[in-house]
């Protein structure tokens, strides 16, 4: 199967290697490939002959207007090029709970991406994932002032990126769902607790203070917004957070 992946970051690079190992004809294209999905430059040539297009692109700016423009324009060009090329399946990776957290500009941008896919002429699957284990250190850094980190007890249901890749590969090589597929990790846990367990595993000396007002990248977070949707039949990944921490490479000093 000829599969073109737009976005060669954490998930895209792993997915390309995974699918290649299964014998598929796959290429992952990052920004260095000279393709600009926001203008459409090079997109038609990239999708020529593809059976499946996987959109793992991300906005280089998190400013609200920039994110919205990126996902709106990028999706329009990818879907239009895919329709013209006869692509049979368009897959995007989205976020569990994004429609419950629309006070965050990034979530509104991802909603625009989903809407663009739904409005297009290519059969599609929207894979909504919970947050990745690999992003917990970044969440911690964004919440730190001096030696103190203020973290919300609001809940996440995080997942290992390797598990995302394994499930995403099944979706990519399967039939279009024509809707949303949810995937999530095996444990629902507060962000404050996720950070404490990370610091215990890595020996980080920062102090973690539980603060319900801390929020999540500018959005207020409760215990339900970013966990698997009840009744949605989410696929639950096998890797636990503690198992991932035990095998995570220790950063060099």
UniProtKB/TrEMBL annotation:
It comes from the Bacteria. Gene3D superfamilies: NAD(P)-binding Rossmann-like Domain. SUPFAM superfamilies: NAD(P)-binding Rossmann-fold domains. It holds the Pfam family NAD_binding_10. Residues 35-170 form the NAD(P)-binding domain. This is LysR family transcriptional regulator. It comes from Nocardioides aromaticivorans.
């Amino acid at each position: 199967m000829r599969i073109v992946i737009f976005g060669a970051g954490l998930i895209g690079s792993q997915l390309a290697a995974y699918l290649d190992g299964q014998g598929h004809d796959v290429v992952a294209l990052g920004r260095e490939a000279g393709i600009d999905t926001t203008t459409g430059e090079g997109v038609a040539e990239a999708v020529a002959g593809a059976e499946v297009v996987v959109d793992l692109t991300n906005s280089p700016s998190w400013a609200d207007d920039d994110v919205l423009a990126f996902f709106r324009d990028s999706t329009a060009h990818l879907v239009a090029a895919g329709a013209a090329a006869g692509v049979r399946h368009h897959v995007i990776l989205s976020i569990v709970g994004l429609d419950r957290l629309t006070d965050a500009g990034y979530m509104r941008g991802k909603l625009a991406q989903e809407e663009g896919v739904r409005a297009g002429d290519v059969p599609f699957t929207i894979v909504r994932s919970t947050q990745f284990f690999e992003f917990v250190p970044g969440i911690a850094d964004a919440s730190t002032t001096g030696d103190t980190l203020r973290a919300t007890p609001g809940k996440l249901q995080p997942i290992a990126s390797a598990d995302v890749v394994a499930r995403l590969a099944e979706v990519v090589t399967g039939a279009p769902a024509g809707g949303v597929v949810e995937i999530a990790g095996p444990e629902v846990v507060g962000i404050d607790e996720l950070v404490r367990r990370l610091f215990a595993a890595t020996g980080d000396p920062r102090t973690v203070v539980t603060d319900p007002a801390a929020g999540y990248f500018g959005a207020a977070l409760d215990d339900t917004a970013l966990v698997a949707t009840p009744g949605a039949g989410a696929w639950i990944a096998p890797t636990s957070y503690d198992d991932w921490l035990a095998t995570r490479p220790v950063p060099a000093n």
